[in-house]
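Colleagues,

For the teaching module next term, I've prepared a clean inverse folding example: a structure given as tokens, and then the sequence designed for it. I'd like students to try predicting residues themselves before seeing the answer, so please don't circulate the second half yet.
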């Protein structure tokens, strides 16, 4: 279902992937610095989760300014929270590359506001860009260290923007419940020599869903 989400004097293009049965949890997903919400990895993940009962909302927000992308992401979270069509108990925020930085930034901002009400259930970072290629001295970890909700990182072990030991070091300092799933030999774009895109996506999608389920299921028992 295509929707246009008001954002200032503009609109953000977004698409709902709706499960057959009434969903209780949602998943908001956005793209990296290039591309848009129709990036194949996002389409694949949204379809996978919706088929398993999780409402997915993916959106496009162009622009290389993280503050601007964060503002847009926050607008989408509010939109879904106030939606009359879907009454959700909570949502997971997710992004690919720069989109995951925006998602982390939103969670940090919302957690610092007084009306923090557990609507945000967790964060999924796909190819989190911890540093610029070959520039490992400056880490983009400030938001991660403030987050308290559960976090899943899915990263390639050969990602030129996320050195394995550096991410493990940051994660060890995080106070939130966290997990890293390494895609063996994958680069920043999650490409792996000798594996098809579908094969890699199947691994990522299954990881994300099983992680989400760990946090949703205990609440329904």
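(Answer key — instructors only)
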């Amino acid at each position: 279902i295509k929707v246009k989400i008001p954002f200032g004097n503009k609109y953000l293009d977004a698409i709902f992937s709706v499960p057959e049965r009434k969903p209780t949890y949602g998943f908001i997903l956005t793209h990296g610095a290039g591309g848009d919400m129709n990036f194949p990895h996002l389409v694949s993940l949204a379809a996978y989760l919706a088929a398993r009962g999780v409402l997915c909302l993916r959106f496009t927000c162009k622009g290389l300014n993280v503050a601007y992308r964060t503002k847009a992401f926050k607008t989408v979270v509010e939109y879904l929270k106030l939606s009359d069509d879907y009454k959700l108990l909570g949502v997971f925020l997710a992004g690919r590359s720069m989109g995951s930085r925006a998602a982390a930034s939103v969670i940090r901002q919302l957690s610092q506001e007084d009306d923090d009400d557990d609507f945000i259930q967790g964060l999924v970072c796909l190819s989190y860009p911890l540093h610029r290629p070959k520039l490992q001295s400056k880490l983009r970890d400030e938001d991660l260290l403030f987050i308290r909700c559960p976090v899943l990182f899915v990263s390639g072990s050969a990602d030129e923007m996320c050195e394995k030991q550096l991410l493990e070091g940051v994660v060890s300092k995080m106070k939130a419940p966290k997990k890293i799933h390494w895609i063996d030999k994958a680069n920043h774009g999650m490409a792996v020599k000798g594996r098809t895109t579908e094969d890699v996506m199947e691994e990522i999608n299954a990881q994300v869903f099983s992680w989400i389920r760990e946090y949703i299921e205990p609440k329904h028992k």
